[in-house]
Backbone:
């Protein structure tokens, strides 16, 4: 575990070297957090498909899918078994409830 | 810059695809020392991201991973990943390569590959290993079977929250890490820098990469891989299981308009392979291959093609003039049949794969080693009938697709000849 003071010094030095974190990156991460939260919130109502989640979260369908597969990879969401043209996803037990 | 690291070996291998790995192993097993330099964060090249390989349909990573492990554990092989070869100088009978190890922003010696940094990092990025279809984090281990299992941090996507450093049990995050110079002295050089596929943006008629359901063949390999981005075959625009899939052959080969007049040799075979795999995972899907003529070059390849026909894959002899899409992002192909009714027609599919061609992975002429290039930038051999590895530069050999499009079995055979030629050259020095 990093020493808090040493870490703070490193990050400060980094800001001096590279300038502040670009606003564009901050905005992108804020949009990501908002989209992910909307997806996880929508899933609290039960399993949904990518287009359903896109509609619930107000996202383009391809973006919703991309966020979805990211959350899936990092263990927040899992696939629901079953057939159909559009697979459904659900919250992983114990996640984001 | 960190302190200069010096390495002295018999042979320098540039590129760690299947050709570079095999050449390095062959040489090291004969007692020669090797340094292998790879620009990507993991060794393995293109083959490690393939699903299965034609014509045997063996799992690609099951064949590549053991070779990667042998290389990285071999006592006579030094592996440098995430490193660029900046220049190679010839001085008498020695080559001196200037290499830069790019910073991963972690202490590589201390890291225990626990992935805690990656778990806590809050920033998601498109994962290039998954051809952008999946996500990774600003600090992440490149992929599950990457070697070495070391994370890379991308500072341009870092919000400097410090979460990774607080989570790392070994205190290895080094935000201020700098590039490290390395000098490699070698007696021979094997070029194995492989290929890139023609870019999605190559052809205006095919949508310039802007149509979400018109994808590259590498993306299709990832969709078919067991641990691919979606865990199953879905199309990128909306996560639908595609019911109708088309392949457009020679989409980036045998096309003078984009400067690739040659045949890329493997596209017919990988398209047929993918079609067979798709019909396995999506039994009710309709799969069509639009082709001008099928070129099945190698051993067992004709049989493979016949199997695909027998499985119900449609082969349509037609030229695809243009691809557009409807409001649901279904690709619409404007085709001109070359047999029977030749009136132009529009056909709708749900997912389209462009069978792209192979371009040189690196312009090796920048190293000034005396190895000639052909008109298309592939390394030319001094006399193909005498050896499949010797170039015009003394002590410089070539293996794999760096010499021109070829499949994996040929790249492996090539690697064997390159290793043999390099060994005999070194012995005579
Ligand atoms: C979609 C697709 C599917 C395919 N499927 C099959 C199949 O099923 N069966 C089959 O036999 N063949 C298949 N092929 C062909 C196969 O991928 C190649 O034959 C094989 O991977 C070539 O290996 P290589 O080592 O020559 O090149 P690569 O795998 O391209 O390796 C080159 C390596 O060099 C590195 N490099 C490049 N420049 C530098 C530099 N300047 N410094 C350091 N490192 C550098 C690259 O990062 C890379 O790791 C397929 C090809 C495609 C496009
Ligand atoms: S400091 Fe950067 S790399 Fe580390 S967790 Fe935060 S965003 Fe990710
Ligand atoms: S948390 Fe530290 S030890 Fe674990 S993988 Fe990341 S850098 Fe390595």
Residues:
């Amino acid at each position: 575990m990093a020493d808090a003071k040493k870490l703070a010094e490193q990050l400060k030095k980094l800001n001096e070297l590279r300038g502040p974190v670009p606003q564009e990156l901050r905005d992108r991460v804020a949009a990501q957090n908002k989209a992910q939260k909307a997806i996880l919130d929508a899933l609290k109502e039960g399993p949904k498909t990518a287009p359903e989640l896109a509609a619930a979260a107000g996202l383009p369908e391809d973006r919703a899918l991309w966020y979805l597969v990211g959350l899936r990879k990092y263990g927040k969401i899992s696939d629901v078994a079953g057939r159909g043209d559009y697979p459904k996803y659900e919250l992983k037990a114990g996640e984001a409830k | 810059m960190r302190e200069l690291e010096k390495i002295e070996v018999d042979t320098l291998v540039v590129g760690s695809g299947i050709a570079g790995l095999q050449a390095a192993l062959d040489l090291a097993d004969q007692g020669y020392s090797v340094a292998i330099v790879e620009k990507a964060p993991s060794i393995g090249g293109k083959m490690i991201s393939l699903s299965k390989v034609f014509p045997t349909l063996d799992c690609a990573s099951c064949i590549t991973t053991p070779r990667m492990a042998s290389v990285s554990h071999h006592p006579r092989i030094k592996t440098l990943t995430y490193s660029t070869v900046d220049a190679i100088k010839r001085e008498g009978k020695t080559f001196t390569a200037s290499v830069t190890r790019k910073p991963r922003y972690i202490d590589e010696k201390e890291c225990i590959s626990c992935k805690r940094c990656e778990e806590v990092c809050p920033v998601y990025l498109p994962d290039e290993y998954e051809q952008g279809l999946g996500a990774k984090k600003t600090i992440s281990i490149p992929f599950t079977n990457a070697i070495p299992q070391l994370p890379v941090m991308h500072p341009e996507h870092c919000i400097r929250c410090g979460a990774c450093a607080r989570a790392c049990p070994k205190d290895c995050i080094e935000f201020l890490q700098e590039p490290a110079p390395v000098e490699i002295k070698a007696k021979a050089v094997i070029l194995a820098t492989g290929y890139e596929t023609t870019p999605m943006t190559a052809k205006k008629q095919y949508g310039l990469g802007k149509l979400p359901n018109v994808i590259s063949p590498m993306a299709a390999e990832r969709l078919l891989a067991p641990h691919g981005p979606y865990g199953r075959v879905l199309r990128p625009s909306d996560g639908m299981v595609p019911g109708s899939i088309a392949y457009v052959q020679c989409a980036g080969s045998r096309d003078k308009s984009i400067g690739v007049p040659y045949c890329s040799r493997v596209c017919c075979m990988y398209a047929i392979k993918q079609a067979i795999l798709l019909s396995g995972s999506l039994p009710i899907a309709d799969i069509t291959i639009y082709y001008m003529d099928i070129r099945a070059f190698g051993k067992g390849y004709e049989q493979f093609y016949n199997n695909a026909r027998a499985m119900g894959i449609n082969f349509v002899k037609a030229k695809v003039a243009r691809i557009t899409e409807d409001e649901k992002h279904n690709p619409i192909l404007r085709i001109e049949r070359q047999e029977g009714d030749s009136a132009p027609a529009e056909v709708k599919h749900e997912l389209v794969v462009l069978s792209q061609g192979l371009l040189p992975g690196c312009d090796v002429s920048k190293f000034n080693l005396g190895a000639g290039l052909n008109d298309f930038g592939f390394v030319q051999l001094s006399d193909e009938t005498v050896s499949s590895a010797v170039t015009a530069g003394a002590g410089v050999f070539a293996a794999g697709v760096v010499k021109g499009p070829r499949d994996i079995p040929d790249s492996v055979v090539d690697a064997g000849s390159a290793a043999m030629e390099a060994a005999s050259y070194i012995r005579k020095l």
